[in-house]
Structure formats: C-alpha cells, structure tokens
Design goal:
single chain, 222 residues, alpha/beta, Rossmann fold, 20% strand, Putative O-methyltransferase YrrM, O-methyltransferase activity
Length: 222
C-alpha cells in the first residue's frame, strides 16, 4: 500500500461524503452564503459535520455549547441532533458572521433550537454560569484560547459531558516543538491540558479530509 497523496485522500473524502452524507440544500446554501459574505472556508468538512451530529445523538445531548459559530454550518448539524425542546448555544465574536449564521440556521428549520450569543467567548462564557449543564461542547474558535475554552467546558458541563476540540493536528505542526507560533502553541497547550487536567479523559485522532491534514480531540468530563 502506497502512502496517500492529497488527491487520494480528497477523493476518498468525497466518496465518503457522497455515500454517507449526501447532498443537503440547507447545508450547502449555508456554506455558499458564508463564502459570499467573505468568511474563510474553515467550517468542518461534511463527514465531520455528520460525526458531530452522531456524537450528539449518541450522547443523548439536549444542551449543546458551540464556541465559534462562523456561518452556522456545524451549528445546523448540532441543532438537528438535539430533540425537540433541546438547545444549542453558539458563541460568535463577529456580529456580521452571526447575522449570516442566523439566516442560514433559520432557513434550515432549526432556528427555534439555536441561541446565538454575540461577543468574545471569554466574555460570554461566564454569563452561562448558573444555567443547566451542557451535555456536549464543541470548541472551534481561536486556538490561542483553547485552554480557556476547555476550562469553561468543564465548568459548564457535568460528569459525562462530551467535549470535542477541532483542528488539533495543524498539518503535523503540533508535534514540532520548535514551532512556537501562537495557533500551534495554543493547540499544543490545550492538548497537554486534556492530558493533565483531572477533569478530563481524552484522546485525539488525525484526520485527512476535504480540509487537509488535521485532527480532532475527543474528551469526556469526569
């Protein structure tokens, strides 16, 4: 077996997406509108969106916290996973992004399940204290703040809460200790926190998909 090339893994990712995810007008329009608004194409790949959706369902999640809304693509996947009466609270720092996401989420028919909180996550997260605990937390925002977000995931969760951290592979750079750039260092510190903080039990997987070579960390609050 030869080592995979980008063309190889992208072809396989498209096959997985076509076979297991299929086409979805609301999701595809959300990506289109995100691009039209000038936002970067950093939403999760379709197979990863379905992965989040299934994790939320497997966990029986009724309350989901998402840190980093962008254009609402992953938010729609998560909102479709929670049952009637469930709630997705998603935090977006940029008001313009939040407005695009709101339109896409409403068009997808899950608007009543989604509460978009606009503001920097470091300021919004403390306002969630005292609410019912979250059953699943998805962290997909600035990597420099991953340790802050993980701390709040534990504080706002409960024993058994599922925590997912996206983009932890960074094309292999996380394993290069000489790379001290802010995003790489923030990602590395988050992973080390998951390893050492007694509130978590965690692992991480490399991913090869439409977004390239990266990874995802999966943790449980204990």
């Amino acid at each position: 077996m030869t080592d995979p090339t980008p063309a190889d893994w992208q072809r396989l990712d498209r096959w997985f997406a076509d076979t297991l995810v299929g086409h979805d007008d609301a999701l595809e329009q959300a990506v289109h509108d995100q691009a039209a608004a000038g936002m970067p194409a950093i939403e999760v790949a379709p197979v990863n969106g379905k992965f989040l959706h299934l994790l939320a369902r497997i966990a029986g999640a009724r309350r989901v916290l998402e840190i980093g809304t962008l254009g609402g693509y992953s938010t729609i996947w998560l909102a479709r996973a929670v049952p009637e009466g469930g709630r997705v609270v998603t935090i977006e720092a940029e008001p313009a992004n939040a407005a695009v996401a709101r339109a896409s989420i409403d068009r997808a028919g899950v608007g009543e399940k989604v509460d978009i909180r606009v503001g920097r996550a470091e300021h919004v997260l403390p306002t969630l204290e005292g609410e019912a605990p979250f059953d699943l937390v998805f962290i997909d925002a600035d990597k420099e703040s991953n340790t802050l977000y993980l701390d709040w995931a534990a504080r706002l969760g409960r024993p058994g809460t599922v925590v997912v951290v996206d983009n932890v592979g960074r094309a292999g750079c996380v394993a290069d200790e000489s790379d001290e750039s802010p995003q790489i260092d923030g990602t590395r510190r988050g992973l080390r926190m998951l390893a050492s903080d007694p509130r978590f039990d965690a692992t991480a997987l490399q991913t090869l998909d439409a977004k390239g070579w990266d990874g995802v960390a999966l943790a449980m609050v204990v």
